[in-house]
Design brief:
The chain has 373 residues and is of the alpha+beta class. It is 23% helix and 11% strand. A hairpin with a 2-residue loop joins strand 1 and strand 2. Helix 4 runs antiparallel to helix 5 and helix 5 packs parallel to helix 7. About 8% of the residues have low confidence.
């Protein structure tokens, strides 16, 4: 039994189940696997080429590859299968769609074509389809033997012997189907060769009327032109040069400088604004020049001298005082605790902010900035 006959062989009695419109017989998937193993052994495989979800269904395309045990050649078929996603197990829809696609691919080789496939909802013919057979070649008519030419002495007077072409072998017709017309080559007889040559005729001479006569060129005639004397024009004095006037460029009006919105008197300044206001006041005080006195030898004191304590060290400036107070208020700190930690005071009272020295004020500001960044 050939491979094709094994694939087309019936599965016998098949089980049935309820479907749309009644009971249908179906081919279990293990029947397909058993038939492939029986025919090809382990020389077959299947793989999912694509799978996609369309609505509430999953569609899988499967390719089945087999190896012919006789020719050792590989062949494959592809099929499609689908299944709804409303099943209990997550993998059941893909397995069901994969099995249907594998059956659909194997139907191209004849597996299950003799029974109805209830899984796909279609019908198949109940009798197996016979494999195609090669058409037998059509009988050809026997070729007649070629007749031998007569000798020249036996020919009638005035008749020239014709040469006959050798018979051509008939084209093979085994590979052509019966509905294809066949071309039969026939021998072409040689025509009688004329003994007299045709007269040579001279080419016709062109008539003189057909040759156009070129026109005779004529010499151009020159027409003398008379010139009319023109009287010289009177001398015209050039106008006196005028001094160019420069147009006045209008000066564009300067836009008024925008004024900052005024702050109500009852709104208190924030700590940052107080620090900025103290720095601005210090810059304005340093920019005011000293008023000269009648006695030029006496030098005026600096505009904003730093107070000094009894030990000779510079005292805290107004800018440093505002900065410390602003940082204390902005971060919600206690001055006594911060000053004691910054100055390293473990016992005794902490000096007020206005009695700090210049170095102590810098230490307090740096301590707050480093600790509360």
């Amino acid at each position: 039994m050939s491979v094709t006959e094994k694939l087309y062989e019936s599965f016998g009695e098949l089980p049935s189940r309820r479907g749309r419109g009644g009971f249908y017989t179906f081919i279990p998937s293990r029947y397909i696997f058993d038939r492939l193993n029986e025919v090809f052994g382990v020389q077959w495989s299947s793989e999912a080429i694509t799978h996609e979800v369309v609505g509430d269904n999953v569609i899988v395309r499967v390719r089945v590859t087999v190896r012919d045990p006789e020719t050792k050649e590989y062949f494959y078929q592809e099929g499609f299968g689908g299944a709804p996603l409303n099943q209990n197990e997550a993998g059941d829809p893909y397995k069901s769609a994969y099995t249907k696609a594998l059956k659909d691919a194997c139907k191209h080789w004849g597996l299950g074509l003799h029974k109805e496939d209830a899984e796909s909802g279609g019908t198949r013919p109940t009798t197996p389809v016979q494999p195609p057979t090669t058409p037998s070649p059509a009988p050809t008519a026997p070729t007649a033997p070629a007749s031998e030419p007569l000798p020249a002495s036996m020919l009638p007077p005035g008749q020239v012997q014709r040469q006959q072409m050798p018979p051509q072998p008939a084209a093979p017709t085994a590979d052509l189907p019966p509905n294809v017309p066949r071309v039969v080559e026939e021998s072409i007889p040689v025509q009688q060769v004329p003994t007299q040559e045709p007269p040579v005729q001279a080419p016709p001479q062109p008539s003189q009327q057909s040759i156009p006569t070129p026109p005779t060129p004529q010499a151009p005639t020159s027409v003398p032109q008379t010139e009319t004397p023109v009287a010289p024009a009177a001398a015209v004095e050039p106008p006196a040069p005028q001094t160019p006037t420069v147009p006045e460029t209008p000066v564009p009006a300067q836009p008024a400088a925008p004024q900052a919105p005024s702050r109500p008197a009852d709104v208190p300044l924030s700590p940052i604004e107080r620090v900025k206001r103290a720095k601005q006041n210090a810059q304005e005080e340093s920019a005011i020049p000293a008023v000269p006195t009648p006695n030029s030898a006496v030098q005026s004191p600096p505009a904003n001298p730093a107070p000094e304590n009894t030990s000779g060290e510079a005292m805290i400036t107004s800018v440093q005082k505002v900065a410390i107070e602003g940082l204390i208020d902005m971060k919600g700190l206690n001055y006594d605790e911060i000053a004691a930690q910054a100055l390293g005071i473990t016992s005794g009272s902490v000096p007020p902010v206005e009695t700090l020295s210049h170095t102590q004020a810098i230490s307090v500001i740096q301590y707050i900035n480093n600790k509360y960044k």
